[in-house]
Write a structure and sequence with these properties.
By secondary structure, the chain is mainly alpha-helical. The chain contains 4 helices and no strands. The relative contact order is 0.23.
Length: about 80
């Protein structure tokens, strides 16, 4: 099982970044120009979307970072 290491705020930011990167690369290719840069933007957006979906970032895991805070049960 994959442990979460992204807070809801972090996931929201990743969602916006993924949406912007994918939109720019797919719908405005003339603004980007270079096909390699467009491919990098698509990959970056796709990886952010995956992190958003699962709540886990591989780079954070490798670096030992976690923005996720466990909710404490209320009495």
């Amino acid at each position: 099982m994959v442990t979460k290491n992204l807070s809801p705020i972090d996931r929201g930011i990743r969602g916006m970044v993924a949406l912007i990167a994918l939109s720019a690369a797919l719908f405005f290719p003339e603004a980007i120009g270079d096909p390699l840069l467009r491919g990098i933007l698509i990959a970056f957006g796709f990886l952010n979307a995956i992190s958003l979906t699962f709540g886990n970032c591989l780079v954070y895991r490798i670096a030992g970072i976690s923005t996720y805070k466990e909710e404490t049960p209320k009495n």
